[in-house]
């Protein structure tokens, strides 16, 4: 996967200030549970159980994944002998086991606990062949293509039915539209599994990729 240091660009730093939001409340069967979004590493213990170690926490918890998440972990595990990185939302039970209710991202490489951009973003989307990247912040979009300077653009957001989003801008004589759909998506180069598929229209060109929510959106 190709990375770039967008926040070293002075032009763009002014649009990337926001607070970190991770917790939300959900009510099921008249019992209130706290659903927490956590990022961290998954490793196996001697009993072949997956242990989830949240970022900046010394202790881990036994993961109780769904059948679908278990298969995704098993498929990626051979590529990551030292463990996987996971971005999950879920809750702890009385035994301190962690049950995920949403998988945002599961990966063997790429953005991890040291990602400086995560808490400032609403969405990160990207695709390959050709590579493109689009970051959504509360104050603007950051669009990046290979061998070109990143562009900071104003935008409009529309929330569509079924959890879909549409972002658009026509600034700088550039027609840019991004559709996000809540559907599992696997990056065809890194193998990273995302919870959103992305369709990008850039002028007359159509590109496809994957996306996931940043720390400012649940």
Automatic annotation (TrEMBL):
UniProt signal peptide: 1-18
Keyword field: Signal
Full protein name: Lipoprotein
Organism of origin: Denitrificimonas halotolerans
């Amino acid at each position: 996967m190709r990375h770039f240091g967008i926040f070293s660009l002075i032009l763009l730093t002014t649009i990337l200030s926001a607070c970190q939001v991770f917790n939300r409340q959900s009510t099921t069967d008249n019992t209130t549970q706290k659903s927490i979004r956590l990022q961290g590493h998954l490793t196996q213990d001697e009993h072949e159980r997956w242990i989830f170690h949240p970022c900046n926490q010394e202790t881990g918890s036994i993961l109780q994944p769904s059948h679908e998440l278990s298969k995704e972990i098993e498929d990626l595990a051979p590529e990551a002998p030292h463990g996987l990185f996971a971005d999950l939302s879920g809750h702890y039970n009385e035994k301190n086991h962690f049950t995920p209710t949403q998988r945002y991202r599961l990966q063997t490489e790429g953005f991890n606990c040291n990602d400086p951009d995560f808490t400032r973003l609403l969405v990160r989307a990207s695709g390959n062949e050709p590579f493109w990247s689009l970051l959504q912040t509360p104050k603007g979009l950051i669009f990046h293509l290979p061998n070109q300077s990143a562009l900071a653009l104003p935008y409009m957001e529309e929330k569509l039915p079924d959890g879909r989003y549409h972002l658009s801008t026509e600034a700088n004589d550039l027609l840019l539209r991004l559709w996000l759909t809540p559907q599992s998506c696997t990056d065809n180069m890194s193998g990273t599994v995302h919870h959103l598929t992305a369709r990008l229209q850039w002028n007359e060109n159509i590109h496809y990729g994957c996306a996931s929510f940043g720390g400012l959106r649940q």
